[in-house]
């Protein structure tokens, strides 16, 4: 297998409230992006790593860089177009610094012969209720938690499937919060690969504190 990894790192980090791009915020003593690059480069099946970056920022050592787009999926598409080869294609958020080589391997292995994609996800442990959309909100229904998964990255795709999923109009891509949902909309088969909840996304300041604590706990 010769997989290519696309790491999206071109977001602004508005919900974190950082002064610069979130992927370059210090996390556990280094820019957040570097943790994911290390985990990906520790897996020999990943032959090449491409990073979608904010304008004017150089790619980390051992990777190649491309300027990202206005929304996340546009950045994924820019990075995909930057690669000439590599199948399957693994997409990962720089905002998930708790990635491990084991998670990368599990997601690559999850792409079986009948699947179009395999995505990291954790089983939901909370009770989830759907609101009725009114203000004040009331409960419309309680969802069956046994069937619910909180989706993460990596998300691994057959190259031709991801190319087709991303060959859609700008506003369709802008509305997608992950790439697998574009494949689902095309009728594709997306496998769920159970991964630890620790593979969290740093969205707010609380997440950053939790990520730093988890990274510190990993130190020998
Ligand atoms: N135009 C964008 C938007 C997001 N991302 C990347 O997609 C991942 C997930 O996005 P998110 O956490 O929503 O990041 P931001 O867009 O930076 O956050 P916010 O929505 O709070 O501004 C991050 O690694 C982010 O850098 C990207 O490469 N290009
Ligand atoms: C792709 C993603 O990380 C899966 O959980 C996530 O959807 C990114 O976008 P978000 O808008 O920050 O949830």
TrEMBL record:
EC numbers for this chain: 2.7.7.60
Catalyzed chemical reaction(s): 2-C-methyl-D-erythritol 4-phosphate + CTP + H(+) = 4-CDP-2-C-methyl-D-erythritol + diphosphate
SUPFAM superfamilies: Nucleotide-diphospho-sugar transferases
Pfam families in alphabetical order: IspD
Top enzyme category: transferase
Domain of life of the organism encoding this protein: Bacteria
Gene Ontology biological-process entries: isopentenyl diphosphate biosynthetic process, methylerythritol 4-phosphate pathway
Pathway of action: Isoprenoid biosynthesis; isopentenyl diphosphate biosynthesis via DXP pathway; isopentenyl diphosphate from 1-deoxy-D-xylulose 5-phosphate: step 2/6
Keywords: Isoprene biosynthesis, Nucleotidyltransferase, Transferase
Annotated positions for site Transition state stabilizer: 15, 22
Site (Positions MEP for the nucleophilic attack): 145, 201
InterPro entries the UniProt entry points to: IspD, IspD/TarI, IspD/TarI_cytidylyltransf_bact, ISPD_synthase_CS, Nucleotide-diphossugar_trans
UniProt-listed Gene3D superfamilies: Spore Coat Polysaccharide Biosynthesis Protein SpsA, Chain A
GO molecular function: 2-C-methyl-D-erythritol 4-phosphate cytidylyltransferase activity
Entry-linked PANTHER family: 2-C-METHYL-D-ERYTHRITOL 4-PHOSPHATE CYTIDYLYLTRANSFERASE, CHLOROPLASTIC
Biological role stated in the UniProt entry: Catalyzes the formation of 4-diphosphocytidyl-2-C-methyl-D-erythritol from CTP and 2-C-methyl-D-erythritol 4-phosphate (MEP).
NCBIfam families (UniProt xref): ispD
Recorded family membership: Belongs to the IspD/TarI cytidylyltransferase family. IspD subfamily.
Name of the protein: 2-C-methyl-D-erythritol 4-phosphate cytidylyltransferase
Organism: Baekduia soli
Source species taxonomy: Bacteria, Bacillati, Actinomycetota, Thermoleophilia, Solirubrobacterales
């Amino acid at each position: 297998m010769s997989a290519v990894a696309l790491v999206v790192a071109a977001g602004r980090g508005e919900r974190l409230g950082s002064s610069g791009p979130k992927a370059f915020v210090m996390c556990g003593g280094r820019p957040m992006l570097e943790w994911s690059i290390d985990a990906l480069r520790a897996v020999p099946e990943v032959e090449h790593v491409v990073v979608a970056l904010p304008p004017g920022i150089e790619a980390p050592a051992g990777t190649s860089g491309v300027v990202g787009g206005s929304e996340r999926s546009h950045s994924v598409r820019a990075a995909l177009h930057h690669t000439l080869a590599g199948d399957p294609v693994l997409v990962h958020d720089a905002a998930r610094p708790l990635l491990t080589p084991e998670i990368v391997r599990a997601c690559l292995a999850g792409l079986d012969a009948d699947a179009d994609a395999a995505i990291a996800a954790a089983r939901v442990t909370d009770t989830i209720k759907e609101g009725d959309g009114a203000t004040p909100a009331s409960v419309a229904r309680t969802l069956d938690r046994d069937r619910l998964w909180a989706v993460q990255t990596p998300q691994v795709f057959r190259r031709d499937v991801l190319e087709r999923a991303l060959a859609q109009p700008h506003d369709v891509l802008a509305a997608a919060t992950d790439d697998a949902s574009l494949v689902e909309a095309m009728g594709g088969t997306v496998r769920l690969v159970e991964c630890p909840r620790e593979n969290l996304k740093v969205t707010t300041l609380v997440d950053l504190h939790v990520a730093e604590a988890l990274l510190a706990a990993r130190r020998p």
